[in-house]
UniProtKB/TrEMBL annotation:
Family membership noted in the UniProt record: Belongs to the class-I pyridine nucleotide-disulfide oxidoreductase family.
Domain of life from the UniProt record: Bacteria
Keyword Protein biosynthesis in record: no
Catalysed reaction equations from the record: N(6)-[(R)-dihydrolipoyl]-L-lysyl-[protein] + NAD(+) = N(6)-[(R)-lipoyl]-L-lysyl-[protein] + NADH + H(+)
EC numbers: 1.8.1.4
Miscellaneous comment: The active site is a redox-active disulfide bond.
Cofactor: how bound: Binds 1 FAD per subunit.
Keyword Flavoprotein in annotation: yes
UniProt enzyme class: oxidoreductase
Section of the entire sequence shown: 102 to 566 of 572
An annotated Gene Ontology molecular function: flavin adenine dinucleotide binding
Protein name, as recorded: Dihydrolipoyl dehydrogenase
Cofactor(s) essential for the protein: FAD; (R)-lipoate
């Protein structure tokens, strides 16, 4: 009889992908070790990503809303920002969630090791502990969930006034002049926060539009609403060089004659996967040219006993994708026939207004010459949107002409991120316009615009304002 102890399932990385995988695997009866190099679980999302950014965006939205309400006869004095308390609110939000994770790990008897893991070979990891010691950890199977890190541009010097998203979330100051490099989701969310706090925010984006890949009509609505709040937006433009001097950070942008000076510069020009630092080659784990670990639908890497999930395993780099993949990897590791089978993964920019999208976009449909019908419902025809001061919003649905099924959708306006879930479900369930249009939506709500857009697609007229 073989008396050798069975090695555990080891999860590397305690972010949303890693802790979801660890907890699901423990719930399925596996012996689980979770290795995280930071003192707190939660990864980028809980500590320096989704959650702290949303805490700040909530406060920013409240301030902007308070200002907007003067039109409706409700006037407040000028808002005072207490940076100390704002930081404390953000930190308390984060700490409440990360403490909850520790408790959930204990409850499930998931052993947590704090240290940085590297593969020694295809069966063993070496973990560098905080006290300088190395711990050897064997595994029967391993789930790599090491996430991603911000790209730092070589054109920028090292200076405390040049920060990445982690630095910007620390709210070092409210700069008079802020440059955001990168007009993607993270850049625009941080621009929203700092503009609400009172900074004059310029944005520079290499592509010819903000939020590259998102339909122009949606970004246009966002741009119109934000034009009065933002400084200059440089499109099709990149940072050539920067000098950090006593008067600020002087930045030279392509196509501009004069450099521009800023008190704070935020680099939000993309993220790269962390897997390459793990010694993956020692374990027979292959990566693609960008450093993402290549996986199959069961989240298995080129070594079938090693899985990869989340940001380390490819785009889109989103927490809900990481969680979904974490569950699949854990289930497959426990012998279940699970596979990644999501038709769509939604995306949301939690800006003001929010933009949410899912599935096929109008631009993609045009490019692929796919025959689609597009139904748009302008919020200027929604009673609730008008009452809420959000008549600028829009709900858009895309249907495949042949099957009639909804294949994509987008919403721009307050709470778009909360509402997009209905479209995700509709796409996953193979709904057509009648399914959505005949579903009674509560009146008057912003969500009702989804039903009204579907009715428009069916050619049925509606008399609900
Ligand atoms: P991560 O969360 O990056 O976790 C990886 C963990 O692995 C980290 O804790 C890291 O310390 C650890 N690790 C790395 N290497 C090792 C090692 N060798 N040994 C041990 N531990 C290691 N996504 C959304 O869906 N919604 C949002 O609103 C959103 N907002 C964001 C806002 C910002 C500012 C940023 C930066 C990101 C945001 N994201 C958002 C993206 C989201 O944070 C990531 O997609 C998500 O965190 C990925 O989860 P993950 O588990 O793959 O990796």
């Amino acid at each position: 009889v073989d008396q050798s102890p069975v090695e555990p399932l080891v999860v590397i990385g305690g972010g949303p992908g890693g802790y979801s995988a660890a907890f699901r695997a423990a719930d399925l009866g596996l012996d689980v070790v979770l290795i995280e190099r930071e003192a707190k679980l939660g990864g980028v999302c809980l500590n320096v990503g989704c959650i702290p950014s949303k805490a700040l965006l909530h406060v920013a939205a409240m301030k902007t809303e308070a200002e907007r309400l003067s039109v409706a006869g409700l006037r407040f004095g000028p808002a005072e920002i207490d940076l100390e308390r704002l930081r404390a609110f953000k930190d308390a939000t984060v700490n409440r969630l990360t403490a909850g994770l520790q408790h959930m790990a204990r409850q499930r008897r998931v052993s947590v090791i704090t240290g940085e893991a590297r593969f020694v070979d295809a069966h063993r990891l070496s973990v560098a502990l905080a006290d300088g010691r190395e711990q050897s950890v064997g595994f029967s199977q391993c789930i790599v969930a090491v996430g991603s890190a911000p790209v730092h541009l070589s054109a920028l010097p090292t200076d405390p006034r040049i920060v990445d998203s982690t630095g910007a979330l620390e709210l070092p100051l409210v700069p008079e002049r802020l440059l955001v490099i990168g007009g993607g989701i993270i850049g625009l969310e941080m621009a929203t926060v700092y503009a609400a706090l009172g900074s004059c925010v310029d944005i520079v984006e290499r592509a010819d539009s903000l939020l590259p890949g998102i339909d122009r009509d949606l970004v246009g609505i966002w741009g119109k609403e934000n034009a009065p709040r933002l400084g200059r937006i440089f499109l099709g433009c990149s940072v050539e060089s920067a000098d950090a001097g006593p008067a600020g950070v002087s930045v030279r942008l392509s196509g501009q004659d004069e450099p521009r000076t800023y008190d704070l510069v935020l680099q939000a020009a993309g993220r790269r996967p962390n897997g390459l630092a793990l010694g993956l080659e020692k374990a027979g784990v292959a990566t693609d040219p960008r450093g993402f670990i290549t996986v199959d639908r069961r989240m298995r890497s080129s070594n079938p006993r090693i899985f990869a999930i989340g940001d380390a395993a490819g785009e889109p780099m989103l927490a809900h994708k990481a969680v979904h993949e974490g569950h699949i990897a854990a289930e497959v590791a426990a012998g279940h026939p699970s596979a990644f089978d999501a038709t769509v993964i939604p995306g949301v920019a939690y800006t003001d207004p929010e933009i949410a999208w899912v599935g096929v976009s109008e631009a993609q449909a045009q490019e692929s010459l796919r025959s689609v019908s597009v139904a748009k419902f302008p919020w200027s025809a929604s009673g609730r949107a008008i009452a809420n001061g959000a008549a600028f919003g829009m709900t858009k649905l895309l249907f495949d002409r042949e099957s009639g099924r909804v294949i994509g959708g987008a919403i721009v306006g307050p709470n778009a991120g909360d509402m997009i879930g209905e479209l995700c479900l509709a796409i996953e369930m193979g709904a057509d316009a009648a399914d959505i249009g005949h579903t009674i939506h509560p009146h008057p709500t912003l969500g009702e615009t989804i039903g009204l857009a579907a009715e428009a697609a069916e050619g049925r007229c509606t008399d609900l304002p």
